[in-house]
UniProtKB/TrEMBL annotation, chain A:
<dbReference type="Pfam" id="PF01339">
    <property type="entry name" value="CheB_methylest"/>
</dbReference>
<protein>
    <recommendedName>
        <fullName>protein-glutamate methylesterase</fullName>
        <ecNumber>3.1.1.61</ecNumber>
    </recommendedName>
</protein>
<keyword id="KW-0145">Chemotaxis</keyword>
<dbReference type="InterPro" id="IPR035909">
    <property type="entry name" value="CheB_C"/>
</dbReference>
<keyword id="KW-0472">Membrane</keyword>
<keyword id="KW-1133">Transmembrane helix</keyword>
<feature type="active site">
    <location>
        <position position="40"/>
    </location>
</feature>
<feature type="domain" description="CheB-type methylesterase">
    <location>
        <begin position="1"/>
        <end position="168"/>
    </location>
</feature>
<dbReference type="GO" id="GO:0005737">
    <property type="term" value="C:cytoplasm"/>
</dbReference>
Automatic annotation (TrEMBL), chain B:
<dbReference type="GO" id="GO:0032259">
    <property type="term" value="P:methylation"/>
</dbReference>
<dbReference type="InterPro" id="IPR029063">
    <property type="entry name" value="SAM-dependent_MTases_sf"/>
</dbReference>
<dbReference type="GO" id="GO:0008757">
    <property type="term" value="F:S-adenosylmethionine-dependent methyltransferase activity"/>
</dbReference>
<dbReference type="InterPro" id="IPR000780">
    <property type="entry name" value="CheR_MeTrfase"/>
</dbReference>
<dbReference type="Pfam" id="PF01739">
    <property type="entry name" value="CheR"/>
</dbReference>
<dbReference type="InterPro" id="IPR022641">
    <property type="entry name" value="CheR_N"/>
</dbReference>
<protein>
    <submittedName>
        <fullName>Protein-glutamate O-methyltransferase</fullName>
    </submittedName>
</protein>
<dbReference type="InterPro" id="IPR022642">
    <property type="entry name" value="CheR_C"/>
</dbReference>
<dbReference type="InterPro" id="IPR050903">
    <property type="entry name" value="Bact_Chemotaxis_MeTrfase"/>
</dbReference>
Amino acid sequence: MSKADDIILIGGSAGSYNLIVAIIESLPSYFLYAIVVIIHRNPKFTTRIEDTLAARLHRPIIQAGDKTIVSKNMIYFAVPGYHLLVEPDRTFSLDNSEQIQFSRPSIDVLFETAAETYGKRCTAFLLSGANKDGTDGIRMVKKMGGNTFAQSPDEALMRTMPENAIRANQEINILTDQEIISYFRNLR
Amino acid sequence: MAKLSVSYISFIELQEIVDLLGNVSGYDLSGYSKSSLKRRIQRVLDLERMDVVDLKNAITNIEGFQTYLMNEVTVNVTEMFRDPRYYAALRSDVFPYLQTYPQLKFWSAGCSTGEEVYSLAILLMESGLYDRSFIYGTDINGNVLESARKAIYPLKKIKVYSENYNASGSRGSLSDYYTAMYEAAIVNTEVRKNILFSQHNLAADYIFNEFQFISCRNVLIYFDMELQNKVFNLFYNSLAEFGFLCLGSKETLLNRDIMSNFKVINKEFNIYQKIR
């Protein structure tokens, strides 16, 4: 598998699950990006989101493993209980350090490290959630020249997370659920 | 030297810090994962309100700062009976084999504040193996080893540890193994008796004993592939024939050259046995 030149990050928390499923279902069968999904979930309860989606969509959807290459045409999920980072050599690494914004994995940590490596070829989406994770990450993606998108708080089940990012980042693009889905449907 | 605004470190400056520390001290951070290390160093800059120039100055000129920096850079997040099902797997998949040895030596590498060492000791007690066992707990960080030796943990944490313990399938109660006083709990002496904590740096130090069992959980994720492979070799050479190696739940030996010398005992929890 070859390294991806572009990365798309999707960060979600409470209330984001259904939209994330809709996004992944809308993806074309081949795309040049690496897509990384990070959701807050409790490591003490095993969830089978990846397996369930992989079976339904007949394509691999895997947990981002330590020191694995960030590859194109792949959908990765952040593992629960660890921070997920992108290294300068375009591999993933995991980190068990303190929670950020009461979260591990933290959306900020993934967004910030991916932004530093991918610069303007990093795109980040921030979806529904009940905390303030992701705001600093969106700021960093923007600062490094990447594109940033927030789910419209009016459509989010939990508006705090996108709303907080919008307040702190004037340049973020606000999209409806339909607009988000069609963005991914039209991915090349 | 306190700064009013936050100062950010770049990857180039990070490399300069790694080189400087390597030159003026025995600490070699060159094999650490860059993004994670950068966040840890940034954390020190924020805590100390320093910029990179201040940091270089402190590394060179302030006595004790090198050790302080290493202690802050290394991650010390741990729990008793973390991943409860891992402990259940030890009981069912590993201990029956260990029963056959008259004497057992265990090494918990990167043991931080000692929770994993005491969990192992409790599990060995419950399996009737502890009297013939000795556990070495090592870490690069002298401060956490001091806490490990004290074996005193806040009750708030003990609550989580008890939930973990119960989920591990043990039939007793964690409270059988500690004495609570005020807001803290101290691990009982019968659990602490066959344990030695000492400093060891996986990136630089060598073999110090031969073991039937080595666990190193959530340490290797901080190392790059090259250093990981070096440490795998260290473990391989430190293991007795048919000894066990236990890694963190996201640390795997699969796809590494050294895997041909091991067999998988438990895939989910990355438990391996040395077979040649």
